Amino acid sequence: MRVLLALLALLLLGGARDPILVPEISQHEVQVRQGFTGAELLLFGAILSPDGTRAGQDYDIVVVLKGPSNPVALREKRKMAGIWLNAASMELHSVPSYFAVASTRPISKIVDNKTAAIYELGLPWLQLSPTGAIDPKAQSHFAAGLVDLMSRKGLYQQSQAGVTVKEQVLYQARMVLPSSVVTGRYTAETFAITHGRVVASAVSTVEVRKLGFEGAIAQFAQSYSFLYGLLAIGIAVVMGWLAGRVFALV
Predict the structure, then answer these.
(1) DSSP string of 160-228?
(2) Whether residue 135 sits in one domain with residue 106
(3) Domain range holding 78?
(4) Mean pLDDT to the nearest integer, 88-106
(5) Can you give the pTM of this predicted structure?
C-alpha cells in the first residue's frame, strides 16, 4: 500500500510540473461581407507553470487551426482518346475545409511520426479516412492530390517556423484565412511539446459568419431549402425569358 501511495504521489508531482497554456485569438468572429478578401488571425498566448509563473523551460509550440469538416468525393480525370473522363474515385468520411499548422521548427524535429499522426501536427499527418476498403497506395495518391489542391487554393497551409516564443513565456503565430473560406466554427488547438512529448494543450474557437445580403441568403437557404430551390428555379426561368425577349427585339 505504501509503495502504491508513493507511486501515486510521484505521478501527481510529475503532472504538476507540466506547463499550462493560456491561448487567445485576435478576433473570435470573422465577418464575411460583400467584397471580403480574407482575414489574418493572430493566435497568441502564454506558457506558464502550474503556479502561474514563467514555465522556466524551452518548449516547442505547435498551433493547429482547423475549419468545419464535411464528406468529400474525389474523382480522378484521365485523358482517353483526346477526351478527359472520370476514372478512379474515392469518398472520404470527413475532410477539413481549412487546415493550417504553425510550429516553432520543423515537426520532424519536434516529435516522431506516430505522435504527429495522433495530433495531426501537419499536412503529411492529416487523417483522411476513406469510406469502405481501398488500396493503401490509391488512398495515399488521392490524399496527396487533395492536399495539393487545397494548398494551391490557400485552404491548407503549413509554416515550419511560424511560431515565435519570447522569453520562454509568450508565443504567437499568424494564419491567413483566404476569401474562399467557408463559414462555421473553427478550432485552434495549441500544443506545448518537450522531448518529443505533448505536455499541454488548449483549445479556442473562431466563428466565421456571413453578414449582410449574403448572410440573409445563406440563412434563408439553410432554413427553407425547399423554398430556396423553388425561388432559384423561378429566377432562372424569368431571367431566361427576359434574355429571350431582349434578343428577339435586337
Answers:
(1) TT-EEEETTTEEEEEEEE-TTPPPEEEEEEEEEEETTEEEEEEEEEEEEEE-HHHHHHHHHHHH-HHHH
(2) yes
(3) 21-207
(4) 92
(5) 0.76
